[in-house]
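User: You have something folded?
Assistant:
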Amino acid sequence: MTLSTHCPVCNAPKPERIFHLGNVPVICNQLWPDADAARAAPLGDVDLVACRQCAFIWNHDFDPARMQYAPGYENALHFSPSFQTFSEELAQGLVDRFDLKGRHVFEIGCGDGHMLDLMSQNGAATATGFDPSMAGKETPYTSRGGVEIVPEYFRSDQLDRPFDAILCRHVLEHLDTPLELMHDIRRAIGTRDVPIYFEVPNAEWMLDAVSMWDAIYEHVGYWTTPAITTLFRRSGFELLSVKAGYGGQFLMVEARPCDPVPDFIDDGTQKILAAAQAFGMASKAELDRWCKRLSEMDGRAVIWGAGSKGITFANALGAAGAHLSALVDLNTRKQGLIAPGVALPVVAPEALTEIAPDLILISNALYQAEIIAEVGKMGLNPEFAVVAG
């Protein structure tokens, strides 16, 4: 493995080291059928560095050859009512702003097609997604006429159908060479005025919230506003808007094609570099605080949220997580499987009546209200604590 010593966005040398977390699951959202397989899941290190020039953050230790996805990979969020509302409003807004009623939409990295279906519901004539992870899988979201998933990686040379907009949500953070995808999209658009929408985890929120649980191996890149602006301008896109959404946890980018500016560098890097340094120093104290609290508790605890935050948190606790009984998740495709590394079972909310936890750790504050309401309906009265947000 060759460690990346130059920024993947602007090619600047000598990045600044900011954070290290060792022995994390290589594929955090890969769940396993039994505890032995979960404990044997491959582990890696997250060694975050920041570009001093464009404020892009990436895992210096990332090895793309280790990213071998298998059955059990699951990261859909739309089982949550809060996320459903966010997605529905997003789809309606994109159709309106990009004038997509009766027109054709592509989505790169579409997952099970949930957003494709929402775009179709809001008036898109066709909604076509590209995602190799969907090979051989069934999904209810392609039952609507005009909605289709191509179970392959997106390539500009495979586009043999019309398109009027391109969406790409939560893909860039997985790519160690993000410029390649952006150049490929720009080639596909050519001389046309086709709008694009991108969505990525917001690294600025992660830094400010000291949410070290968002630093996972399968995310090689952590996008800040200057970094994503630099990426888009260099690859030939003019930014219409870059804003934080979903409680500040996502960066939401709308853009249109323009001439590339190969040497473009956005402003605002110094503030982010200062936040990155503070994040690195605060993270150890945050982990120590949680380890102390969990080590000293009596009774049983569960983590609500078997996604990146919850699974990273559980693994980082080490021996201090001995009181953890399970991870809880609304996603029925996760229930009955085992989280990598820590080997905790993923259970449905109904299982809490039998577990009777004394403490429920909420992995993401965005879901706090719906979780507390759900637990209240069960007649349980545990203590709650928020891990991130």
